[in-house]
Specification:
Elements (H helix, E strand, L loop, with lengths): L1 E5 L3 H12 L3 E6 L3 H4 L6 E3 L2 H8 L3 E4 L6 H10 L3 E5 L8 H11 L4 E4 L6 H9 L5 E9 L4 H5 L7 H4 L9 H11 L4 E7 L12 E7 L3 E7 L9 E6 L2 E6 L2 E4 L2 E4 L16 H14 L7 H4 L1 H12 L4 E2 L1
Helix pairs in contact: 4-5, 9-12
């Protein structure tokens, strides 16, 4: 298929190489930084994504830009009936949610969101094991390190207007998504967010705690003020015992049970192994006409939880 990639940061470059590996026809790349375009001299480069879409007319665009640009780019492509695969989060403002959903509804194209950890073999194992079981509760924990140097790599990071938040909407949004995918979408949340270690450096949170209430309650602790990146954990408690996923390993009642999970990762270990499988599934959905599982409605669930947490400030807030 004729494909274009918008945004050539670390993740965008990874998308280009994955598409080339799939033998897709990458007809254009786009980035406001002209120097980044030179990394792909044999692909037509643009600094204006609207000009690119109108001139090249790709069938699919991959959006790998900073968070605050996603809504405008996603809706612009959908209005042109161009299929869209967007990196998380789909948006960072509550008022953008209906805008995206309406654009998706009116478009002939498909919208997909990169919550690739759903495609990790460990996540698929947990999802299957939970079928038919009575789920009692769940909890997640993410402890990573993102220091001043990390935020200095791009001016949009650590700024509320452009990143939308900190650890919760960036790093931990994948864990939020897996938790609600495993146990169900909550109805309300009580959350607390704080900048613990980077005051004066960033204006968003580096630490967050939240409890979600619904048919099944779940909680999450997340921080990027740790000394290193430690394995992310999710525990789901059922009437038949508990299942725990720690990165690629799955334990049931403390015993390692899933020994066949891939150790392959996409660019960085923390990105997991699921990008390749997600992209393959998205393109198969385009070709066969079946629905893609992580569409706009599904991809916005984690965003809704995160935005409600920011609104909460310690008070129960409806999602």
């Amino acid at each position: 298929m004729r494909v274009a990639v918008i945004g050539l940061g670390v993740i965008g470059v990874g998308h280009v190489w994955l598409l080339k590996e799939r033998n897709e026809d990458v007809v254009a790349v786009c980035d406001v930084d002209e120097k980044k375009l030179s990394a792909f001299p044999n692909i037509k480069g643009y600094q204006d994504y609207l000009q690119m879409m109108d001139e090249v007319k790709p069938e699919v665009v991959h959006i790998c830009t900073p968070h605050y640009l996603h809504t405008e780019m996603v809706t612009s492509a959908l209005k042109r009936n161009i299929h869209v695969l967007c990196e998380k989060p789909l948006c960072i403002k509550k008022e953008d949610i209906p805008v995206i959903l309406q654009a998706e509804k009116e478009s002939k194209a498909k919208l997909g969101v990169c919550f690739q950890n759903r495609y990790n073999l460990s996540s698929l194992f947990v999802k299957e094991w939970l079928k038919g079981k009575t789920i009692l509760s769940a909890r997640g924990c993410l402890c990573w390190n993102r220091d001043e140097n990390y935020y200095g790599q791009a001016e949009w990071r650590g700024v509320k207007k452009t990143e939308g938040g900190g650890v919760l909407i960036n790093q931990a949004v994948h864990t939020v998504d897996l938790l609600q995918w495993f146990v169900g979408m909550p109805k309300s949340v009580v959350g607390w967010c704080e900048n613990v270690s980077l005051k004066g450096v960033i204006e968003v949170e580096d630490t967050a705690m939240l409890t979600c209430m619904g048919d099944v309650d779940f909680s999450l602790c997340a921080t990027t003020s740790a000394k290193d990146d430690y394995p992310t954990q999710i525990v789901v408690v059922t009437s038949d015992g508990e299942i725990r996923v720690t990165d690629n390993d799955v334990y049931i009642n403390g015993e390692l049970v899933n020994k066949n999970s891939s150790k392959e990762s996409f660019i960085k270990k923390v990105y997991g192994e699921g990008h390749k499988a997600l992209i393959s599934d998205f393109y198969d959905c385009i070709k066969t006409g079946r629905d893609f599982a992580i569409d706009g409605k599904e991809g916005l669930k984690a965003v809704k939880i995160v935005l409600a947490t920011y609104e909460s400030d310690g008070k129960e807030t409806k999602i």
